[in-house]
Specification:
With about 450 residues, the chain is of the alpha+beta class. The protein folds into two domains: about 270 residues, Bira Bifunctional Protein, Domain 2 (BirA Bifunctional Protein, domain 2, 2-Layer Sandwich), CATH 3.30.930; about 90 residues, Rossmann fold (3-Layer(aba) Sandwich), CATH 3.40.50. About 40% of the residues lie in helices and about 20% in strands. The strands form three sheets. An eight-stranded mixed sheet has the order 1-5-6-11-10-9-7-8. The longest helix is centred in the N-terminal third of the chain and has 20 residues. The two termini are about 50 Å apart.
């Protein structure tokens, strides 16, 4: 019989790996809650009518579709079942799909529950998402996102908080990052000034790949999409602009003077970077005018975060969206959010060996098992330890001492508690430090204090 396997682009996680992942989740969650964000969850699957058309053509192609239950092909006309009709066939037999991200389901949630929510509504969400992408290093078909969003407010203070959240999370995780910021209004203004407003989506999709494929390939893609050589020549200096944030804003302000929308984007960036300057952000922050982020629903500030000491794609990204809830029937509900890619963060922390030793410890003390009499003495003490929040195991079998100590060593359990006949008579416990080998006999009622 062949060995079982899992689909490409998915992963199993061992207890140690789960402990490390939970360390990431707990760290991120703790920061979200200090800013007053509230947790929600949404279903793994959504109606395709909710998902389609929100991510652009490339995003729609990456949606996992769920075949309708029953006999979905039964009512189809046999003449339709041809390769050239694959899109129509998929629409006819699939009404649901796995969520591509957490933002679109969040917009649907807000519209559906609008009468139950207080606005501005601040939510965080930590759940898996799925994309039918080609699996490769740092890119999975199933992965977790840790999202934080505020909806129902236009204030740039919300963008400022997002930068603060990113700064604090990565300081706590001990990852050095670069926070890149741009504004879709600036990109719209650039498209307008170079005379290619109708090609805005093509331009943003192309330049969003500049870090991966380089400027030359981006220019080739723009040309293939019908962007004129003259427009590409005007665009190139913007994509390669260097200098301080102030220098970049001064230059782009002049360039975008003919565009009202572009000028508004510059003003928003000046305000946001002014707030950031007053906060002593520890991570590096830069204005990157080539940053586009391909998702169509962004309308204002956009963010992307990259690890500085580890080669991988972006590990966090997000932005402002003004019209996302509008497509579900709720107008004038602007939002802004950011998503932490837990799986890429996990890879970075593994690659840089950043996990504290305490993050993978579960059990703190193991009681050695010598027999029934000893078990009866151990059980109330173990209960007391657990009641005081100390993770405790009792070895379930009456095995040799060597085997039980090896178990504790392999599990990285820092303490072993030994109760034999002598200890039962004296009401004591022999506590062994597995790292130093030191043993000390303590009164049983004092064991909680000794292990705290």
């Amino acid at each position: 019989m062949s060995k079982p396997s899992i689909p490409k682009g998915t992963r199993d996680f061992t207890p140690i790996e789960m402990a490390r992942r939970n360390y990431i989740f707990d760290t991120i969650r703790s920061v979200f809650t200090t800013f007053g964000y509230l947790p929600i969850e949404t279903p793994a699957m959504e109606n395709l009518s909710t998902l389609l058309g929100k991510y652009g053509d490339e995003g729609d192609k990456l949606l996992f579709r769920i075949l309708n239950s029953g006999e979905p092909f039964e009512k189809l006309d046999a003449n339709i079942l041809r390769p050239e009709n694959s899109t129509a066939i998929a629409s006819a037999v699939c009404e649901k799909g796995l969520r591509y991200d957490l933002t679109v389901p969040f917009a649907r949630f807000v519209v559906q529950h609008q009468n139950e929510l207080n606005f501005p509504f601040r939510r965080y969400q930590i759940q898996p998402v799925w994309r039918a992408d080609r699996p490769q290093k740092g890119r999975y078909r199933e992965f977790y996102q840790c999202d934080v969003d505020v909806i129902g407010s236009n204030s740039l203070l919300n963008e400022t908080e997002i930068v603060q959240i990113v700064d604090i999370v990565y300081e706590k995780l001990n990852i050095n990052v670069l926070i890149k910021i741009n504004n879709r209004k600036i990109l719209s203004g650039i498209a307008e000034v170079i005379g290619e407003s109708d090609k805005l989506i093509d331009i943003t999709v192309a330049i969003d790949k500049i870090d991966k494929v380089g400027l030359a390939s981006v220019k080739e893609e723009l040309k293939a999409k019908g962007v004129s050589d003259n427009a590409i020549n005007k665009l190139e200096p913007i994509l390669t602009l260097t200098g301080s944030t102030k220098d970049k804003l001064n230059m782009i302000r002049t360039f975008l003077a003919p565009s009202e929308q572009g000028t508004q984007g510059v003003r928003e960036m000046e305000t946001l970077f002014g707030y950031i300057a007053a906060l002593n952000i520890k991570q590096e922050v830069e204005l990157d005018l080539s940053l586009a982020r391909g998702l169509n629903y962004y309308t204002g500030a956009i963010f992307e975060v990259k690890a500085k000491d580890f080669q991988i794609g972006s590990i966090t990204g997000g932005g402002r969206y003004d019209d996302l809830s509008d497509i579900f029937g709720l107008k004038d509900m602007s939002g802004v959010g950011i998503s932490f890619g837990a799986d890429r963060i996990y890879d970075v922390m593994c690659g840089l060996d950043l996990y504290p030793e305490s993050s993978v410890q579960s059990t703190k003390v193991l009681f050695v098992n010598f027999g029934e009499k000893e078990e009866l003495a151990i059980l109330p003490i173990a209960k007391s330890l657990r009641n005081n929040g100390i993770a405790t195991e009792v070895y379930p079998d009456r095995a040799k001492m060597k085997k039980q100590l090896e178990y504790a060593s392999k599990r990285n359990i820092p303490y072993v508690a030994i109760i034999g006949e002598s200890e039962i008579e004296k009401g004591t416990v022999m506590l062994k430090n597995m790292q130093t080998g030191e043993q000390k006999e303590i009164v049983a009622v004092d064991i909680v204090t000794a292990l705290v």
